[in-house]
Each structure stands twice: as C-alpha cells, then as structure tokens.
Amino acid sequence: MKAFVVDRYKKKSPLRLADRPEPQMGADDLLVQIEAAALNQLDSKVRDGDFKLFLPYKPPFILGHDLAGTVLRVGANVGSVTPGDRVYARPRDGRIGTLAERIAL
C-alpha cells in the first residue's frame, strides 16, 4: 500500500511516498479505503516533533488525522457499520495514518 511517511522528526521535513504493509485489523476495527484526507496544523506539529513527549510515534510512521472513505471490512465486534458504508473520521491518537490508501480504525 502507498502512504506518505515521516522518516524523522524535523521542522518542515518533507514527507516521503513509500510502500507500507497493509493495516492490521482487530475485532473492533473497520478497514477503510481512504478517498480524501486533509493536512492540518496538528499534522505539522506531529511531523516537527512538538508532541513527541506525549504522542511518541516511532519513525517511520504514516502521518494524517482526517479522512473520508468507504468501509471495506468490519471486525467481528462491529455491528453498526457495514462494508460499502461511506464514512468520515479522525483516528484516535496512537493510530493516525490517513495519508495512505487504507487505514484500520
């Protein structure tokens, strides 16, 4: 899967387009095909390392906090969403990564 990754914390560092493994789903997760994503102020601060003391992402990591897309699969414990549903979301801290083709959330 293609994704934009942060290789190291650095102010104004460029993102790198890379091949990354498919997201791993849990029983409470959705697998979403991302159709739109946005960059916001939070993303630039994460990339710069401003929050690494309390949001310690280990580089390389996929950046991005906002998405819209279509559900591809649902975990065993998910009952209110079905494949084909269109969704928008902000993944919780620790599971960011919307600048990619797919995400589990």
Regarding CATH, which class? Alpha Beta
CATH topology description: Quinone Oxidoreductase, Chain A, domain 1
**Number of E-state strands:** 7
Question: β content, as a range?
Answer: 25-35%
CATH homologous superfamily title? Medium-chain alcohol dehydrogenases, catalytic domain
Q: From N to C, what is the helix and strand string? A: EEEHEEEE
Oligomeric form: single chain
* Largest sheet report: 4 strands, antiparallel
Shape from CA axes? elongated
Q: Please state the average pLDDT score.
A: 95
Number of domains: 1
Which second-level CATH architecture applies? Alpha-Beta Complex
Counted by DSSP, the helix tally is 1
In helices, the fraction of residues equals under 10%
Give a verbal description of the structure:
The protein is mainly beta and 105 residues long. The protein contains 1 helix and 7 strands. The strands form 2 sheets. It has a 4-stranded antiparallel sheet, with no helix packed on it. A 3-stranded antiparallel sheet has the order 2-1-4, with no helix packed on it. The model has no long low-confidence stretch (mean pLDDT 95).
Short key terms for the protein model shown above:
mainly beta, 105 residues, 1 helix, three-stranded antiparallel beta sheet, single chain, four-stranded antiparallel beta sheet
Give the gist of this structure:
With 105 residues, the chain is mainly β. The protein contains one helix and seven strands; from the N terminus they run βββαββββ. The strands form two sheets. It has a four-stranded antiparallel β-sheet with strand order 6-5-3-7, with no helix packed on it. Strands 2-1-4 form a three-stranded antiparallel β-sheet, with no helix packed on it.
